Request: fold
Amino acid sequence: MAGAGFSGIGAAIRLRQEGIRDLLVLEKSPDVGGTWRDNTYPGCACDVPSVLYCYSFAGNPGWGKTFAGQREIHAYLRDATDRFGVGDVLRCGVEVQRAVWDQAVGRWRLETSDGVYTARALVMATGPWNRPRWPDVPGLDAFPGPVFHTARWDHSVDLTGRRVAVVGSGASAVQVVPAIEERAAALHLFQRTAQWLLPRPDFTVPDALRRDLAQRTMRAGQYWVQEGLGYAFRHPRLARLLELGGRMHLRFAVRDRRLRKALTPDHTLGCKRLLSSSTYYPALAKPHVHLHPTAVCAVRGDQVVGVDGTVTGADVIVLATGFHIGELPLARSVHGVDGRTLHATWQHGREAYLGTTVSGFPNLFLLLGPNLLTGATSAVTVLEAQLTYLCAALHHLSDVRSMDITPAVQAEYNAEVQKALRTTVYNTGGCTSYYFGPDGRNTFCWPWSTGRLVRRLSSFDPTVYTTWKEPVHAPPTATSPAAVRPGSARPAAD
Reply:
């Protein structure tokens, strides 16, 4: 398994619970946590209520606030690793550099920074929020002051009394701007696209709500709130009703008409990732904070230049420009049955069966893969549904050498997904977003309810896979002796 964030840790725990003992999790970084290890910018927090942002089998009554912060979530993942005893299957500091499917022996051959590993199955738990997007802006590399991405925050830089330019107005900007504006002498936010923003009921969780029954009740209640949002996103007319809440929030928080107009989106709510904050608008209304409703086209010396001709001086540039969401890490390095990479297979758009298996890549499983997430459902809920499918698939794999989803089944399923997406706000809301691949297809969103997703992933049908039952005779594998676990002839990552 590659990756030890929410997906990798959750998978290791569930596979252990299912009696699957021969597994290994390779993590390129020195610690677990994934995006919650890497994103340490001020104000970083989950935009899903805390009661939904934890494993159902490992609730956390200790959440300090209704929307947990980065440190709390990272600590939770560390605690889950220890509590469920999966630390012994982790290999932190080991980077997967290349993975090649060997059809003759029915195994994946993994070239890593710690030698070569072989595995009957390979689980990609690298997540979509992995590689920061660095904008292609002329002159940015010659800026005389500090430049860093929110996902790689430079804590050595003191923002006190400095002119700070924030590029981007998405989820990370909404969180970081209120957290740093008081320190800055001036803060300039460059907004290419106005975002819909709903109020964020973020408060300290009282002791009465930390009890088990209260937690379960809150979890159920919040689940249905999220499902209500998801229903509206599948019916754009209802999504427009939700915009009334966004407009009222903006009107009460921002009194200046010109600023309010610049912050009013021109697309339907839900077309892009839904954001929430009760501090972002008040921060932008402060006199030393300046909104520039334009994209950045160049940096000249210490001057940041907008497409509309805006020029402003800055001492520090913060890039709140998101991630390469549609590009699975390692896709260029994973080779299937014919040597073709996953990246080449997806050159016209990402595609998988149930977001989990890809034709031509036997015994490969993706977590949080294509067309599984939405603008309302917790990623952890989706993950756990996938883990049910993964466990069933791996149990089936114990009776066969390898399994590969048939091209026809994958194509039929994805045609069904794309047809259902046509009428959702994701596709009809009038915006561009990371939901779409290079071919113009929405390769990110699940077009139905969470309940339907859970039901689809709870049933594993082996008949939609081509299987090979011949016994496996794997050759010896060269690797670091330190990486071989006691009792194992060779490292494995299944």
